[in-house]
Amino acid sequence: MLKKVHLAAGLLATLTIAMFFTVTIVVELFGTHGAVAAAKAMIVLPGLFILVPAIAAAGGSGFVLSKSRQGRLVEAKKKRMPFIAANGLLVLVPCAIVLDRWAAAGTFDMMFYAVQSLELLAGATNLTLMGLNIRDGLTMSGRLRKRTIAAH
Ligand code: HEM
């Protein structure tokens, strides 16, 4: 049961960030300022209300699952989690909130694009770290085969 919660929360958190990232790039490239503002509003509500609990649930369930596991993969996952959480709570959440406010007010200045760039960078970093956690998780659960060193 806990494993299912962990799998669902981990995938949901990762897909949510992937969706924010894609929508942001698409509306910035092809959308009007109105479309950008609508996307920014959706990222905050309901977006953050899905993302934050999903990250917390993935981390919390992961630490409980890790009590009965040892080894390099679980250690690597444990080390990545504080960066994922800090990046999410200290960078992605505040960026999403200020970008939403500025976009709603029609303020698309240098600061907007600076914060937008920071948000994309933090998003890409979290996608990478979460992708590695998924890979190591699937390896531990046996759904993905361990990479073996080819003996040539
Ligand atoms: C956002 C962060 C995380 C994501 C996206 C994630 C993702 C996953 C995925 C996809 C699986 C495979 C589940 C399955 O095949 O049923 C898994 C398994 C696992 N994860 Fe995570 N995980 C995250 C954080 C953590 C953390 C912080 C820990 C704690 C060290 C952890 C510990 C585990 C363990 C022990 C398993 C293996 C469960 C088993 O088969 O016994 N995970 N994870």
CA radius of gyration is 18 Å
> What is the helix fraction of residues, given as a range?
over 70%
Mean pLDDT: 96
Distinct ligand kinds: protoporphyrin IX containing FE
Estimate what percentage of residues fall within beta strands.
Answer: under 5%
The largest sheet is:
none
Through-space gap between termini: 42 Å
Apparent shape: elongated
Poorly predicted runs: none
What string, H for helix and E for strand, traces the elements in order? Answer: HHHH
Tally of helical runs: 4
Number of strands: 0
Pairing-aware structural class of the strands and helices?
mainly alpha
Give a description of the structure:
The protein is mainly alpha-helical and 152 residues long. It has 4 helices and no strands. The protein has helices spanning 2-30, 33-65, 72-104, 110-141. The longest helix is centred in the first third of the chain and has 33 residues, at 33-65. It starts with a helix and ends in an 11-residue tail after the last helix. The structure holds protoporphyrin IX containing FE. Protoporphyrin IX containing FE binds next to helix 1, helix 2, helix 3 and helix 4. Protoporphyrin IX containing FE binds at residues 3, 6-7, 10, 13-14, 55, 58-59, 62-63, 65-66, 69, 74, 77-78, 81, 84, 130, 133-134, 137-138, 140-141, 143.
